[in-house]
């Protein structure tokens, strides 16, 4: 048995189906058996016809009463069959299935599985699958339902899967060491694979799933931690000099750093001075002051004769960083420049040239920095801001522009510890858990739709006092199904009906970068009173004069995202407000609104968000750069994740490079992850 063999050699797979399977990412036998069902249908327990409820999918066992009739109906054909069991009769119908003509024998028992319609007591089942009574292909068992592609049917894939599983049955080599199987009461790989596709009972599926989730999380965790070890042990990085003092920058600041900022700077300083390359994640709530931390680190690198690169997710943000950096660092003779796709060709050429000659010390920019023609003289430090917009791939790509430069990743999305370990397991973590003093908390109110008038009055009052407002709506285009207001309609309503006397503009993610920058710039300069926006403003833009944000359909957002959005106000000296307009009366909605109103602590909010929504939604807005799990669900499987993390740490403590005999299999798993990984 050869797991790497091409799927085309599996029974039932012709050239056509090879292509369809490839579309699903299935190329080899191994891929096939690791293609797990999306869900299951229990087609093992029959129901009496008389008890069938309208709309439900059921299995019935019934005797065929008459010959299948084949009726023509407006270009289609319809097949009809009368069946009955002890409790009643049922009409079964299909469309365009003429081949069924001679399939059924009158008086014989069959099993049918399909959707029931009960029209005033007249029971029909439409387009069911079926088996002869003794057979169990489509019915009589728990049936896996796979995620599919157009043109490949469940039946076909199931047949292929059965053929594939038959080839490997009982022959799969165990992938987890015995001691792990025993300690964590996990079933062997053969049982797990078989039962994940065709469980005898739902409880077998649970057992199989647990084993596969454990393996998936363990191999990811081990891979990330090994990566971290390898940064530390093998590669030599830059040892920045102790003589380059971050305090030069600190002394220029118009404020005192918080304890948390100082602690984090110490951690970074130590990392930078050591020869091991720094790979550090800096987490800190919105407004906690991460930018100055980046500035101090960049300064240190420059003082030691290296260059630094700061990468931000948007041009607006990059420009803002440049301004902040220049304010402080120009006094210290550090040259900072901006590189975004928006700048002129001539200017760009000049920047690239200066950069290569080492005349620019710190380059701040967007994705544009990653481009190939951007070459540094000697890049010593890479900072990426708001990392959830970048994946590891991009991070490493820019790091490759230097020789093992130190890397600092900053994010404002607080992540609970357990998750941070699996999402950023290759990085050391620093946390700023304190906001600068005298920060006014943003007063948050959750209101129902019928308060709109009062909310508008309140917004008006702020604007009359010279402030500016954000109004956030969730979608770009009208989507009737979700009944969300598009930014355009919202804009028109506000501009023409509610606030005709004010300067109202709108901004959304599908605009050209230049248009967006232009609008943000005007908003910053106070030339716009009310900015209607999608979540593009979520990312760190600083407009201290805007002190009020209204979020429409707040129930549609995740808590972490609401918190991010809210962080856009409360950046100046004015008391700031966030008004969450929501619809719906659900318990969860109310609970979520309550959390937002009661705390400004991003970590508390992200924990709650996880609890209330599940990890899928939690990461909905930051999908980029996260590892994709085939079977694990970070939320549901949190208990498994926790035990996996402690076991992974223990294993690597005892056997850092997985050399020991007992860990041979784990080493294989990690190797496998590295070959496919990279998307992490
Ligand atoms: P974020 O962590 O969200 O990126 P910023 O670095 O943009 O936050 O900081 C938010 C604001 O707080 C900025 O205007 C910054 O100058 C200011 N700031 C940062 N640290 C302090 C501090 N220790 N005391 C007072 N203000 C600070
Ligand atoms: Mg920031």
Quick structural overview:
The chain is 38% helix and 19% strand. The chain is of the alpha/beta class. Among the domains are: 1-40 and 146-171, 5' to 3' exonuclease, C-terminal subdomain (DNA polymerase, domain 1); 45-140, Beta Barrel (OB fold (Dihydrolipoamide Acetyltransferase, E2P)); 247-274 and 289-411, Rossmann fold, CATH 3.40.50.300; 443-599, Rossmann fold.
Q: Provide the CATH architecture of the domain at 443-599.
A: 3-Layer(aba) Sandwich
Spatial arrangement of strands, main beta sheet: 11-12-10-13-14-9-15
**Which molecules other than protein and nucleic acid are bound?**
adenosine-5'-diphosphate, magnesium ion
Structural class: alpha/beta
Report the count of strand segments: 21
Distance between the termini: 31 Å
Which blocks of ≥5 consecutive residues have pLDDT under 50?
Answer: 476-485, 620-625
Overall shape: globular
| CATH class term of the domain at 443-599 | Alpha Beta
Nearest-integer average pLDDT: 87
Number of helices: 22
**Helical content, roughly?**
25-40%
What does this structure look like?
By secondary structure, the chain is α/β, with parallel strands linked by helices. Among the domains are: 66 residues, DNA polymerase, domain 1; 96 residues, Nucleic acid-binding proteins (OB fold (Dihydrolipoamide Acetyltransferase, E2P), Beta Barrel); 151 residues, Rossmann fold; 157 residues, P-loop containing nucleotide triphosphate hydrolases (Rossmann fold). It is 38% helix and 19% strand. Strands 11-12-10-13-14-9-15 form a seven-stranded parallel beta sheet, with helices on both faces. It is globular, with a radius of gyration of 30 Å. It starts with 14 loop residues before the first helix and ends with a helix. Bound molecules: adenosine-5'-diphosphate and magnesium ion. Magnesium ion (MG) binds next to helix 9.
């Amino acid at each position: 048995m050869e797991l790497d063999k091409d799927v085309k050699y599996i029974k039932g797979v012709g050239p056509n189906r090879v292509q369809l399977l490839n579309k699903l990412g299935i190329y080899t036998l191994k891929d096939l058996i690791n293609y797990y069902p999306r869900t299951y249908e229990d087609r093992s327990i029959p129901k009496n016809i008389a008890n069938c409820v309208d709309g439900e999918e059921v299995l019935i066992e019934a005797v065929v009463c008459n010959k299948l009739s084949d009726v023509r109906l407006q270009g289609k054909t319809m097949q009809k069959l009368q069946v009955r069991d002890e409790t009643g009769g049922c009409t079964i119908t299909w469309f365009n299935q003429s081949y069924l003509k001679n399939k059924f024998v009158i008086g014989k028992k069959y099993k049918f599985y399909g959707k029931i319609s009960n029209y005033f007591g007249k029971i029909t089942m439409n387009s069911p699958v079926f088996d002869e009574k003794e057979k169990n292909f489509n019915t009589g068992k728990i049936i896996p339902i796979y995620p599919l592609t157009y043109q490949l049917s469940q039946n076909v894939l199931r047949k292929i899967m059965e053929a594939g599983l038959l080839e490997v049955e009982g022959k799969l080599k165990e992938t987890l060491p015995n001691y792990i199987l025993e300690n964590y009461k996990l079933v062997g790989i053969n049982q797990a694979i078989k039962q994940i596709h065709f469980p005898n009972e739902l409880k077998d599926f649970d057992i199989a799933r647990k084993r596969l989730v454990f393996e998936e999380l363990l191999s990811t965790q081990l891979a990330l931690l090994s990566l971290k070890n390898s940064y530390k042990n093998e590669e030599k990085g830059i040892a920045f000099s102790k003589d380059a003092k971050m305090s030069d920058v600190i002394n220029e600041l118009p404020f005192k750093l918080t304890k948390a900022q100082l602690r984090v700077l110490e951690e970074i300083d130590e990392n930078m001075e050591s020869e091991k390359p720094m790979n550090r994640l800096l987490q800190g709530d919105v407004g906690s002051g991460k930018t100055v931390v980046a500035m101090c680190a960049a300064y240190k690198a420059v003082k030691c004769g290296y260059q630094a690169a700061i990468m931000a997710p948007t041009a607006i943000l990059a420009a803002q960083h440049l301004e902040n950096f220049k304010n402080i660092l120009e006094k210290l003779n550090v040259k900072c420049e901006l590189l975004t796709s928006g700048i002129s060709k001539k200017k760009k050429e000049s920047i690239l040239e200066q950069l290569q000659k080492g005349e620019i010390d710190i380059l701040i920019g967007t994705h544009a920095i990653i481009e190939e023609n951007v070459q540094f003289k000697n890049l010593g430090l890479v900072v990426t801001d708001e990392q959830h917009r970048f994946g590891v791939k991009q991070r490493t790509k820019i790091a490759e522009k230097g020789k093992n430069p130190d890397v600092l990743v900053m994010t404002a999305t607080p992540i609970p510890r357990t998750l941070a370990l699996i999402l950023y397991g290759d990085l050391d973590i620093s946390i700023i858990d304190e906001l600068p003093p005298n920060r006014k908390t943003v007063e948050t109110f959750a209101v129902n739709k019928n308060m709109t008038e009062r909310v508008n009055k309140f917004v008006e009052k702020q604007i009359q006092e010279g402030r500016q407002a954000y109004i956030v709506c969730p979608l770009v285009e009208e989507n009737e199904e979700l009944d969300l207001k598009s930014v355009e309609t919202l804009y028109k309503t506000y501009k023409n009906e509610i606030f005709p006397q004010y300067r109202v503009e709108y901004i959304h993610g599908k605009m050209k970068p230049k248009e967006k920058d232009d609008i943000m710039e005007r908003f910053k300069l106070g030339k716009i009173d009310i900015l209607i926006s999608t979540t593009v403003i979520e990312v760190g833009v600083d407009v201290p004069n805007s002190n009020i944000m209204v979020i429409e359909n707040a129930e549609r957002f995740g808590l972490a995202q609401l918190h991010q959005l809210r962080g856009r106000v409360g950046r100046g000296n004015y008391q700031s407000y966030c008004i969450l307009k929501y619809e719906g009366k659900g318990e969860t909605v109310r609970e979520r609104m309550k959390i937002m109103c009661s705390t400004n602590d991003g970590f508390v909010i992200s924990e709650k968000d996880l609890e209330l929504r599940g990890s899928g939604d939690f990461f909905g807005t930051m999908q980029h750069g996260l590892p994709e799990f085939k079977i694990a669900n970070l939320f549901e499987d949190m208990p498994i994740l926790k035990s996996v993390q402690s076991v992974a740490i223990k294993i690597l403590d005892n056997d850092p490079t997985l050399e020991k005999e007992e860990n041979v299999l784990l080493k294989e798993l990690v190797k496998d992850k590295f070959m496919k990984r990279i998307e992490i």
